Amino acid sequence: MTITLIFLAFVMATLIFWLLKQTLNTQPWVSDAEADAVSGMSLNTNPQTIGLTTFLAVATSMFALFASAYTLRMTMPDWSPMNEPMVLWANTGFLILASISYQWTSSIALKSNTQKIKLGLITAGLFSIFFLIGQLSAWQQLIEKGMYISSNPSIAFFYVLTAMHGLHLLGGLYVWARSIIRVSRDADAEAIRLSVELCTVYWHFLLLVWALLFSLMIST
Amino acid sequence: MAFVAYADRDHEQEHHDPQTFLTKYVWSQDHKVIAIQYGGIAILVGLIALGLSILMRLQLGFPNSFALINPESYYQFVTMHGMIMVVYLLTALFLGGFGNYLIPLMCGARDMVFPFLNMLSVWFYFLSVIILLASFFVPGGTTGAGWTLYPPQSISGGTPGSGMGIILMLVSLAVFIVAATMGGLNYVTTVLQARCKGMTLMRMPLSIWGIFMATVLALLAFPALLVSAIMMILDTTIKTSFFMPAMISAGEQLSYNDGSPILFQHLFWFFGHPEVYIVALPAFGLVSDVLATHARKNIFGYRMMVWAILAIGGLSFIVWAHHMYVSGMNPYFGFFFATTTLIIAVPTALKVYNWVLTLWQGNIHLRVPMLFAIAFIFTFIHGGLTGIFLGNVVIDLPLSDTYFVVAHFHMVMGVSPVLVVFASLYHWFPLMSGKMFNETLGKWHFWLTFLGAYSVYLPMHYLGFQGVPRRYFSMGTTDFLPESAQMLNASITVSAIILAAAQSLFFINIFMSLWKGKKAEKNCWGATSLEWLTPDQPPKHGNWGHNLPEVHRWAYDYSVPGQDQDYTPQTVPASEVPVGREHGVSTGFAFEEVEKK
CB 3.0 to 4.6 Å from B531: which of A162, B105, B232, B399, for a disulfide? Predict the structure, then answer.
């Protein structure tokens, strides 16, 4: 459980350090004109960003727990390392390209260039879909080799981890589709920019998670 | 880039009241309606769990006297009772019910930040309950593996509900976690970003602190249950071997390999222990506010209370293996977890001292909510002290499988939070309904509940010391148990039936009060926090009429010397109170009075 504990220690330390900065020397029973003027907003950002950050903490907790379970389970005698399909390297490339596309779109969104935003979004979405198709083809290759989910725990973890990661990407693609619709309808520029920014953060997160999971799987 | 706060943007936003019956009461996005939906579903499913506990007690008190109860059904009752009470009643009621109702009102917001997500949350919760209850009606019935669902037992043939029953339980839990996550994102974001002007974090009532930290725990701990549920579903359906070891069942070698049941235990308790605090922390917060209001005194050590909540939250992630002392763990590992368990008792004890010191020299009004709140202090100390026993490995080993543990966790995690639920429901009922409840009926309900709970759980400690094992359908002819143990069991069962029946007083009181109760005065308890200061009682959609409130003080200015009334609402500016008496702690006032005497 070390992986999860490290992550949780980081989250709790961040939260408590932040609260420490906010509140340690406050005496709430004393009237305080400065406090009266406080806006009621703890962080200088929009609620959607806070919502996404919180969700990313939840998702990280889940993947950290899967990784902890993986490292605990691999100590049992029946564990045999699997040879990961080579297509996973290409898939990783697609996900990196999707992430780069989103980063580019995010910078374009600041200038409100609708056509370019649309182009960037479509590119990012296509690369993400290629990634998912690539992951499915990796599954197909394993099945053709007779490496089923119940064959060995390392293979079972491969299926589960790729499925969970893929589901998160599918959820992201739902929001991506909404962004495309929003851009096509020439919605409010601020709403488009926010949507693109949040998706960019989410895609970078999914890339990082995939990089860590892939590293864990190929190194064991 | 600077962002404009919710409170400052309020005038820009149009607030459309829901017009149709469906949008107002069914697909409602109003946090108050969602809170009541959460609460209603939780209480209904809780009543089912209460009924199951009575069936269990009938078997234990009067063994083999009822044809309905056989070993299989007994274990199914035990499992469903535990799981429903912990997850589907208490977690849902504290976070979904009280969290939804109180966060926007106490923070001075119009609603949750993501109302649509909030609505989805309650419907996912409802779906999870439906899936759970459906397991009663599938072949083999509901799972009987115990609420901890330990493999290999839970998915091995011979355990009741090892087919569809366990699958439905796991699916239901997964759906519940999705619901809790959607709700949790709302609670965290609303507390952090949507408070009204002047509401600093340290001016928030402790209820909000407790619910906030419990939500953080839920968001981080529930994934452990989700991960274990996913892997166990795969072990059950596709015959993977995440948790299932190689084993022979009914003379037949099963297809599993070297799965690790201990891995499941780690994952389960990594969720399971924070879960204790997911229930306890909101209870700590709510009871603090009820105590301060009805003792007419500021909460003692507010800052310490906040830090204790945060410390308990942080520490709750490093005590999980104290539930696993009997799993054959390394003694050094046990030593570590015993130490962390004793450390977490420190901030918890601080809270207890502060509640007692809040009562000291207070102007205590023994109304129904206060009775329940004071009773909570008794039962929580009781359950907490036995927890210190069980936190030590050498004491836990002989007691772990006895009724001492049943008594401990029911006192600390069953009775105590339920007493806070009642304290809070009675306290906020006038706000939620606009009606007063019947005080006499409420007091009858309290005394029967308090004494009933003690007559059920106190004797269980003795049974535990005598070595009466828990989880047994029937004791049979166990030589080391005296006959008096069975007599005590019968008496516990009778008490439990009376205790369960006494809860009908609560429902009669609520329904009668809703039907023809006296209209509640505005802010009938003389409270300081924002939820009592809405223009309408009960608050309407949008909560605050045209203007959001502005806060100028903390939520505990009770009995401020020199003030005409014994409370100063959070919205009263310093300029409106006498100079030098502008806050709850005057310069040694209480001590001056004592010295004069």
Answer: B105
pLDDT at B590 over 50: no
d(CA B235, CA B240) in angstroms, rounded, equals: 4
Q: Which of B13, B42, B49 is nearest to B121 (CA)?
A: B42
- Residue A28 · residue B554 · CB < 8 Å: yes
Q: Which of A27, A77, A150 sits opposite B258 (nearest CB)?
A: A77
For chain A, the domains span 2-218
* % residues pLDDT > 70 (chain B): 95
Find the Cα–Cα–Cα–Cα dihedral B178, B181, B186, B189, rounded to 10°.
-150
For residue B587, the model assigns a pLDDT of 43
Q: How far apart are alpha carbons B40 and B425 in whole angstroms? A: 12
- Burial tier of B72 (Cβ tally within 10 Å: 0-12, 13-18, 19+): middle
Q: B68: buried, middle or exposed (CB in 10 Å: 19+, 13-18, 0-12)?
A: exposed
- Inter-chain CB proximity A39 and B242 less than 8 Å: no
How far apart are the C-alpha atoms of B565 and B561, rounded to whole Å? 9
To the nearest whole number, what is the mean pLDDT of chain A?
A: 90
Q: Which of A29-43, A107-121, B50-64 has the highest mean pLDDT?
A: B50-64
CA-wise closest residue to B209 among A17, A45, A23: A23
**Token couple for A49:** 């960003």
> Which of B201, B238, B317 is opposite residue A149, by nearest beta carbon?
B238
Cβ-defined contact of A69 to B203 (cutoff 8 Å)? no
pTM across the whole model: 0.94
Looking at residue A190, what is its pLDDT? 81
Domain boundaries A2-218, corresponding CATH code: 1.20.120.80
Q: What's the N-to-C CA distance of chain B in angstroms?
A: 60
State the Cα–Cα distance between residues B378 and B415, nearest whole angstrom.
Answer: 10
Return d(Cα B466, Cα B385) in angstroms, integer: 19
* Of residues A69, A87, A92, A94, the one with CA closest to residue A220: A69
Mean pLDDT computed over every residue of chain B: 91
Q: Are the beta carbons of A38 and B197 separated by less than 8 Å? A: yes
Instruction: State whether residue B439 is helix, strand or coil.
Output: helix
Query: Closest approach of chain A CAs to the CA of B552, in angstroms?
Result: 5
Inter-chain CB proximity B223 and A65 less than 8 Å: yes
Nearest by CB to residue B193, choosing from A11, A43, A61, is: A43
pLDDT of residue B16: 61
Under the banding of pLDDT at 50, 70 and 90, the label for residue A23 is low
ipTM above 0.95 for this complex: no
Q: With b meaning 16 or more CB within 10 Å and e meaning fewer, what string describes A1-26?
A: bebbeebbeebbeebeeebeeebeeb
Tokens in use for B198?
């002047």
Mark yes or no for CB contact B220/A11 under 8 Å.
yes
pLDDT, average across residues B112-118: 94
Distance of CA B309 to the CA centre of its chain: 15
